[in-house]
Amino acid sequence: MKKEINIGLVGYKFMGKAHSHAYKDVASFFKLKAKPVMKAICGRDEKQVKKFGKDFGWESYETSWERLVKREDIDVIDICTPGNLHKVIALSAAKEGKDIICEKPLANSLAEAKEMLRAVKRAGVKNMVAFNYRRVPAVCLAKKLIEEGKLGKIYHFRAVYLQDWIVSPDFPLVWRLKRELAGSGAHGDINSHIIDLSHYLIGEITEVVGMQETFIKKRPLPKEATGLKAKSTKRMGKVTVDDTTLFLARFKSGAVGSFEASRLASGRKNYNYFEVNGSKGSLFFNLERLNELYFYSQEDAGDTQGFKNILVTEESHPYISAWWPPGHIIGWEHTFVHEIYDFLQSIARDKTAEPSFAEGVRCQEVLSAVERSARGKRWVAVG
Amino acid sequence: MKKEINIGLVGYKFMGKAHSHAYKDVASFFKLKAKPVMKAICGRDEKQVKKFGKDFGWESYETSWERLVKREDIDVIDICTPGNLHKVIALSAAKEGKDIICEKPLANSLAEAKEMLRAVKRAGVKNMVAFNYRRVPAVCLAKKLIEEGKLGKIYHFRAVYLQDWIVSPDFPLVWRLKRELAGSGAHGDINSHIIDLSHYLIGEITEVVGMQETFIKKRPLPKEATGLKAKSTKRMGKVTVDDTTLFLARFKSGAVGSFEASRLASGRKNYNYFEVNGSKGSLFFNLERLNELYFYSQEDAGDTQGFKNILVTEESHPYISAWWPPGHIIGWEHTFVHEIYDFLQSIARDKTAEPSFAEGVRCQEVLSAVERSARGKRWVAVG
Amino acid sequence: MKKEINIGLVGYKFMGKAHSHAYKDVASFFKLKAKPVMKAICGRDEKQVKKFGKDFGWESYETSWERLVKREDIDVIDICTPGNLHKVIALSAAKEGKDIICEKPLANSLAEAKEMLRAVKRAGVKNMVAFNYRRVPAVCLAKKLIEEGKLGKIYHFRAVYLQDWIVSPDFPLVWRLKRELAGSGAHGDINSHIIDLSHYLIGEITEVVGMQETFIKKRPLPKEATGLKAKSTKRMGKVTVDDTTLFLARFKSGAVGSFEASRLASGRKNYNYFEVNGSKGSLFFNLERLNELYFYSQEDAGDTQGFKNILVTEESHPYISAWWPPGHIIGWEHTFVHEIYDFLQSIARDKTAEPSFAEGVRCQEVLSAVERSARGKRWVAVG
Amino acid sequence: MKKEINIGLVGYKFMGKAHSHAYKDVASFFKLKAKPVMKAICGRDEKQVKKFGKDFGWESYETSWERLVKREDIDVIDICTPGNLHKVIALSAAKEGKDIICEKPLANSLAEAKEMLRAVKRAGVKNMVAFNYRRVPAVCLAKKLIEEGKLGKIYHFRAVYLQDWIVSPDFPLVWRLKRELAGSGAHGDINSHIIDLSHYLIGEITEVVGMQETFIKKRPLPKEATGLKAKSTKRMGKVTVDDTTLFLARFKSGAVGSFEASRLASGRKNYNYFEVNGSKGSLFFNLERLNELYFYSQEDAGDTQGFKNILVTEESHPYISAWWPPGHIIGWEHTFVHEIYDFLQSIARDKTAEPSFAEGVRCQEVLSAVERSARGKRWVAVG
Predict the structure, then answer these.
(1) Is C302 near chain B, with CB under 8 Å?
(2) What span, in angstroms and rounded, lies between the C-alpha atoms of A174 and A113?
(3) Which is the CATH superfamily of the domain at A137-289+291-330+353-376?
(4) Fold topology of B4-132
(5) CB spacing of C309 vs A304 below 8 angstroms
(6) What are the start-end ranges of the H helices in chain B?
(7) Interchain pair C306, D267: CB under 8 A
(8) What is the ipTM of this complex?
(9) Which of A343, C73, C127, D354 is within CB 3.0–4.6 Å of C357 for a Cys-Cys bond?
(10) What's residue C351's pLDDT?
């Protein structure tokens, strides 16, 4: 087996930075069967990509992803671009036999996502969709408690993912607010996360009914749009994605679900909250306090039942032994280190990575069903 | 104007006790134009109602509500019975010219509620539906902040009302679990509260889409059912109401809403939670900490924005000057004292009580629309 | 045994109101062996005391406590005056054979407190010092958990009692800020509460070292001082009590303790917080959320240890079965109902009331030792 | 000016790992005038130090610190050893003209600390003591708010630093529990942190009174002691440091303070909590939620005062612009990146680093005064 895995990463903004950090740090903290080599970073603006590459220790840079995917010294293509490029890059990379990790949501449409899945299956390459919140230790602990039956039969899953970064009407029309680039708004960007978490924790969603709204319909065009920071011009353009999407769902298991994503929830910065209620217990989680999991058990003594705030920083907790002693909390970026660790290990061990593109398609099916439901004002079966 | 208002109360269990306490205490803490006189308590079980009457200081008791409503020494009929009796008592009371306060939801069906509204209008009597959570000081403060424009344009209202008192399958089939007595389950009992709060805080709901579920379909018949406490027999009976009801909504104002009621949410005891997000700020509230309101303002200085935990126990806060110094919290029962205070004042001042039966009907229209939506699996216009 | 206990209460401001409410409500919610009869309320201002008596249902009023204690129709004297009157009233009442409940701290000095204890012992009357926070259900649960050994060997007790009602230098010089009336400031008023709680939960304190500070040394004289509300004049007077007192302590059990009282802690309204750490677990409590107890157990499964937020509103919790279903929280005033209930039961059952004047003296010994320690800048043995 | 700064680090366990990570990442996220080069890592166990060096990207390794400090290619000596080696390494490094960053507390005694200070002054080298919690963004914000006068005159500083990693009596006698290696226990290890924070936020401490306790006096000898993890043998040895140290303090400004450190506080993992109360406002902070600062202002509108939970992850907050968008929290390790960033910048800009060894001595003076106070059972002046 190879001792090293050569990485080529497309994109160097928000997600590109998070992934680069993960490649840079993972081998210092985790024991890997094969270590990543930061071969090449790719972006269109040569000056910027070159500087970024230097800052994060990439060995080389490319300004064309087409060139990157053809490089023979590259084993893995990591896709951190806007959604409109996911498919074309993934298809090319698969054709070249590269293993692929792709940012979420997998694609801008269900059709594209399915095409990507077919491509990686055909090529027989490892593939992962980067739903990093599956790698929050507290979320892994939630999964463990559910699987151990600590919550009993699950009745409820309810999740919101709330942000407020576009609450000002002066915030400019960045790429994430344009359908042709981003596919959708809050729905694909953040509902996708809580949909994936529901799949992970509860299982398959069978039907949905939803609604979408764009409250702020026009925004100033950006002078220069870089990730979440941008300056505005005075010209206005049309917002073509949702500010918010809500939906109700039924799970195959019988549980009922409620989902809501918004970018207009003043004061909620990165409030990815979910709660699970079962016959024996409940749990809830909030990404803004990602080191904590709340757990209630009907099996505790009658007069001492209550929601327990578990500080998920013990050596026995998932991923934590790699880091620091109890109470020394980790941050958001660590979820990417865990994700990259798992992806690299799945390559080195020749095992299926989770969540794979198949999971990405599952999520996309729900996203798509909700959109159709919102348009048709009716329940829609998923898949 | 009369200096005293004579009360006749039907029901002496959970709600009867809460209302009795309110009549008993209100004049000690609040300055009233006309004080209540606890004339008569009414219930079917003579022994029990007699004892209850003695404990709470009722001057007399009745075992027939028909007799009570005809008593000439009674000015107000207070209805704390199961929902199936609301209409018939209210109609009789109205006919006799009594002012009426009635527990929520106003009736077991929209039709009944409308009939009750017509009756009180025809009779010209004061009427109030006992949505006591409008009288939580923190909720009143929320209303004030919204009205002052502190939240700007409202985008989101999201509320859950979660309890877990029937999560054990051994919990018996009490009256609240039978449609013919209770009208519905979690929906009418607790969704009604958050619907009413949404009306109070946000305004009219125009359309809804919902779902309902009864997870535990059979339960042991009760030996003796008293409020929330009950003993079981070994025979089983069918649960004919919902364990949970969820729905999405659009408000006339353009805001979107999400509602959920459940009695199977392990660990949530009386978790009436709502959150409002607007263009300038947000707020949230949780009944289990009813002395607190969380408020976020975009207008705070940039580096000190955050959700503020307002301990709503200052003399300047609604109702609080009647009670204790700052930080000396009030309890759930106090909301009834406030409600009765307001109702008595509306009688003494000859002003419309809020929320009136008209508000009760508005709530019932939403309850009904959600039920039709759940059956038809489609969006339904309200009203 | 008598079926009724006749009460005479001296004082009708903050504490007088809290006690009056308790007498008024206790028999409605609790089953008593002998019910209280609200015979007479006593205060110096006839107009005010008369009105108060009417509001709360006192049968008569007195403007002289000397007359009150001599009335033959009175069984219990309840002392809710400023501290400078505790001793003289208690001694007279004891002489008349009345049972006595007295507000805390028991006296303005240790010598006075001891004299009061001797008097009630000599007279053989029931006696209680009104440390109402022993009657918070969550505090009782804390006591139970400690007694059951759930915390193991206790290492730490740490408590603060923080308020901010005099943080404005314009707040006037009310009686609580004058040594001759109040005995001391934050120390006697609120340190006394957490000292008593430490006695209740941990046991005897053997030695202390403390410090005291009066940050705001002059304040405007009040026009009219009524409890915590007061209007100022322009003349200034000297504050003769502490704004804050802190001390460290050793318990007989070997545990170490930290105590702090302040009336200048901006934002802390009634923040009576204590924490106990033991070899097997910990717990903490905050009076501003008095329905909650936080409990950590080393005996929970390794990956689910955490502080549990117990909502102390279950029927199985102390005092709660008298009130409302789970999650329907009680308020600060309820602690007085519990206290009066226990006091009345101790009289009816002819048992020693807890905490008795002996406990009041124990607390006073600590208060006194801390004051001597602060003056002498050294450790002082208690008692 | 040099474009690179060559680092030599002594120690590769807990702190060595945290510092190594910081050197590895700092230049990826922060713009530095001179970048660090990870020249050499030093430790006694060749196999372990070699492996560690490889994992974190150190160019070389040494097994003798004496050799390291003499290497001409080293600019900075970073001391992450147990306290007993701080002085000797620092003195040698200063003699060689190296800039020095040293873990806290600066030394095992005040005398040693002073000697170190003289040495760096004499040598004219940059020096910093690694009190990393000054670099928590929320703590920096607290400092800013205090300096801006948002809290008014400061009355109270109260801090606890609570952990529970030695609460089991079976936990072995690691170096941190031996006076000859660690100098003291909880006192030097974690009280030092909150003392330094009090200096940073409030200013100089003038006198103290304290107490110390070792509850668990004997522990099993360790087979192999590595940082906080260790295996035990069956032989027992004597614990020669404190489990807990508490003290009261007076600040030069007039404020009063309370401090407590414990390693036996079940459930408190890394609970570094401080609260500041002033005439205009208050704030509090808890390291287990290090992205949050709570702030109360008397200047808010009367009915919306409350403790505000500021999520300190905005671009405008200290250090945050280098990291992620709002709500994407950072972890404990980031404080070291900030610290190393500031240290490197102070070297590159030839400015005094803060906190310098002078600050380290200030802290040591308080540590020493508390120890003398505990022995003598009296107040002791600091310095």
Answers:
(1) no
(2) 23
(3) Dihydrodipicolinate Reductase; domain 2 (3.30.360.10)
(4) Rossmann fold (3.40.50)
(5) no
(6) 14-29, 46-56, 65-70, 86-95, 110-123, 137-147, 179-182, 186, 192-201, 334-348, 357-376
(7) yes
(8) 0.96
(9) C127
(10) 97
